[in-house]
């Protein structure tokens, strides 16, 4: 397919968009499952190897959420945030490896992730606070301003889908295009410094997606928390 570099999976099933998304999605999922399996296969009191890395990662994820929702809630939503972070990180890193593509560079995938987060944090908000309280919070503190505040709040919540999906997609797609141009213009050894920056950007976008998800969930449950 024109405008694409060689990919290993593309050489098997072609470089059509559907095949590229599904094949790299499957590969990303397999890698995440293998990492999870390696970390939990032989759990030790004193962690080593993959278990040590994953435990440090999970502690870091909890730390990210402490400021926005407290340690208790941070641990409560740890499985979701940690899974999202690990999946997005692996997908981002895959795009850096020559011969593979990142599924986070496709708007369909990032939009699906954003919609999932949107549905989940609103579900938690309704469950924790009740429909009346949750919707009432969107109408502002003054009843007279409700006709103005409610549409603004709805637009604000919907814009979060756009923010989550397009921020991740735009960054990773830009990285992919930069890498493609770089590899076509210079030898394989010369772009090595650029790979470091792409690696850092991939980590940064993973962190941003995780912390925004924590913030959105915190906003939906904090009304029921006395410490807020």
Structure overview:
With 228 residues, this protein is mostly helical. The protein has one domain (10-224). It contains 8 helices and no strands. The chain has helices at residues 10-13, 17-40, 49-76, 78-94, 107-129, 131-137, 146-185, 192-221. Helix 4 runs antiparallel to helix 8 (192-221), helix 5 packs across helix 6 and helix 7 (146-185) runs antiparallel to helix 8 (192-221). The protein is globular, with a radius of gyration of 20 Å.
Element pattern in H and E: HHHHHHHH
> What is the tally of beta strands?
0
Helix content: over 70%
Radius of gyration computed on alpha carbons: 20 Å
N-to-C terminal Cα separation, in Å? 53 Å
Whole-number total of structural domains: 1
Uncertain parts = none
Please tell me the overall pLDDT.
88
**Number of DSSP helical runs:** 8
Percent of residues in beta strands: under 5%
Q: Which structural class matches the secondary elements? A: mainly alpha
Q: Give a quick account of the main beta sheet: strands, pairing sense, barrel closure.
A: none
